[in-house]
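Follow-up to my post from last week.
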Amino acid sequence: MPDRPAKTAKSQRTQAAILQAAQELFATQGYERTTVRDVAARAAIDPAMVMRYFGSKEGLFARATAFDLQLPDLSQVARARIGATLVGHFVEIWEGARSNGSLVSLLRAAASSDDAANAIRTIFGGQVVPMLARVVPPDELFQRAGLVATQIMGLAVTRYILKVPPVVAMDRAQLVKLLGPTMQRYVVGKL
Amino acid sequence: MPDRPAKTAKSQRTQAAILQAAQELFATQGYERTTVRDVAARAAIDPAMVMRYFGSKEGLFARATAFDLQLPDLSQVARARIGATLVGHFVEIWEGARSNGSLVSLLRAAASSDDAANAIRTIFGGQVVPMLARVVPPDELFQRAGLVATQIMGLAVTRYILKVPPVVAMDRAQLVKLLGPTMQRYVVGKL
DNA sequence: CCAATAAGTCAACGAACGTTGACATATGCA
DNA sequence: TGCATATGTCAACGTTCGTTGACTTATTGG
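User reply:
Got it. Predicted complex:
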């Protein structure tokens, strides 16, 4: 069941509609509870179209959760502001204008899918670790990257999935102020 | 579909076997991917027994994820050791001898179930917040509880669900040393 | 010992799911 | 305008799921 490419402008629009519907549903319900039929209904097309364009439900999920963190070059950031910069950047990725909810989708899915969990590990190894490598000595790199992961993923889980009220209530500036020092210590502080 | 109580010693053993199988499967696979048939097979009984004793799959899940955090009385802990004490206590709960994996089950399920997410919020409101209330002034209580949540849940997610390698590799003493100061600041430090 | 009650088995149900292939319709190029 | 190709529809498939009710076997108290 290979994917079939979109060849006309109209088909690209419906393909995009399927992708957007899938991202919204995967982000709010996770992989298992999101059905191909639901995605098709939200995109106002036939379930068979999903199979035509994405081959399978797994193929759709893979396409719906592909993204680039666009992490900053930390060597160009003032050392004292690294923690705040990172917190702000991650919040932007999760809920900013350029975001499509795909990271939350993937996190939701990772709770019950080893493939999705592995995708997150790959993102960390391929994007977060290289980012930190520019300002962290190699012998501490993985440990500090792990610490960064605990705080960043913890923020994501409590704010977007568990919706713990005080965490949801914080605005972006508060998050930077409260979590920035933690991130600062995890990246360049004394352990 | 009301539950049917266990009346004999033998039935209590099989009921316990079902519960243990359910906790193991819910903890490793989440709610959706765990089937009643799987639980029954692991407990070496008929799927119908699950319905007899727990009424429904949801009823089984509710029973399998009930627990008490047994949080310490922070007013009896030296102020400088609060952070380390809390980190150690939570790690103990997740992987200690008294643990049955039910907290990880619930966290996994929360990714795709609003009911499970609500159960976690209730635990936080009913157990974590009261614990902190003994050492935190009321006007900062909810914010500090939220911060504690971000770090604790982040540790759980990266270590037990995403299995981020450097986080998995840390032993209990390292976790206390590395995350303790963060927790200390979130509970009694300057924000 | 024998009824009464509990524990456990079995086959089957209806529903929902991902997926498929045959078919209809629209579009773009010669 | 015609024809080839792409787009979209439809009904149905095989599977798996939670759940049910009738049945059989074991246990226990009088």
